[in-house]
Amino acid sequence: MASYISSNANRFYTALETSYGQVGSITSGNRIPALKLTVQQKLEAAQRKDKTGSRTFPGQAPGGRRQTNFELQTYMTSWQKTGGNPGYGPLFQAALGGAPLQFAGGTAASATAGGRLGFAAPHGLGAGQAVSCAGEIRFVAAIVDTSTVQLNAPFTTLPGTGAALGAAVTYVPATELPSASVFDYWSPATAVQRLLCGAAVDQMEIQVNGDYHEFHFSGLAQDVLDSSSFSSANVGQLQSFPAEPALAAFDYSIVPGNMGEAWLGTSPSQFLTITSASIVLKNQLDTRSKEFGSNLPRSISPGQRSVTAAFELFSQDDDATKGLYQAARQQSPISVMFQLGVAEGQVMGVYLQSVIPEVPEFDDGQNRLQWKFRQSRAQGTVDDEIAVAFA
């Protein structure tokens, strides 16, 4: 007897595509603990104006252009460094564009309160790449020499000589964007399974200090396939609907939204008064969907990238807080970094090297004065407005 399908009885996987719309291959390691996947496909139907002799609608001709939108939400979770990149890594790469930069770890030779970090051997790092130590993550603001870097902010506990520096993977922007495949499998196996191919991320949002840290991705896909109506004539270069990988242990921890650090300012200071924050990236995507000969998009075309930071904090009578207000009034750039999580394997960092803060809105409706910095836009030189890293 047929029964209802539980909304919790599904599993999500992601994979990067080698070319637009070519479905990637997945293993159990590609699974992500998504909260929700919304997919909406519309068929473009021009109004019929032929005279039929009555007022009855005669129907539309099949084969119209398709537009597929999606939105995926997921919590920030722990990840096994030895297992490769985080499961939701393909989505970050699809949003930012650049191939992930790997830092295998190293040994500290020196560290200063000004953020200078020396290595016992050549570090091989680049500007914007992340390093970690003892549950903290920092980004390279400048390369001093082959064995020394200048960090965007100092570690709160300076690594001593011989201290181990942990591995980190960093996602950075690029001019062109890749696409991803998103798999949505359900139980029982006879239920309709779904597959998004050519998923291009138009907007990415990182939310800070909610109940849990969350990532939201939304954008345009080439098509949505399903196991019920699948045909080898479909897109995705598939001969059959891909089967779900054999289920393996799926052990992860959700990171509480209140755990982390915030470093803001012209000379970054640690702020302990942040009440909420969000980082939003918009790619201004367009698709090649109006060309003759196809009812599906042929590729994606990103526009000018927009990266904004919004944050709220309780005002204090200190130099760091007053410095933020002064920078906003003078339209002086500040750096913004949020660290999400504080435990090894559960740490993420997002770094904006140059942000012009908006003049804050004063909210005196609570017992303590709160400042609200609205969407303040990040700027850069070439593909360097933002870096996202996991450690």
Short note summarizing the structure:
Helix content is 5%, strand content 41%.
Structure characterization notes:
- The protein is mainly β and 391 residues long.
- It has two domains: 10-42 and 63-99 and 173-390, no CATH class; 105-166.
- The chain is built from two helices and 27 strands.
- The protein has helices at residues 89-96, 319-330; strands at residues 10-16, 31-32, 34-43, 66-75, 101-103, 106-111, 116-119, 130-133, 136-145, 148-151, 164-165, 168-171, 180-186, 194-208, 214-221, 223-226, 260-265, 269-270, 274-282, 286-287, 300-301, 306-314, 334-340, 348-355, 361-363, 370-377, 387-390.
- Strands 1, 2, 3, 4, 13, 14, 15, 16, 19, 22, 25 and 26 form a twelve-stranded antiparallel beta sheet that branches. Strands 5-12-27-24-23-17-18 form a seven-stranded antiparallel beta sheet. Strands 8-9-10-7-6-11 form a six-stranded antiparallel beta sheet, with no helix packed on it.
- The N and C termini lie far apart (48 Å).
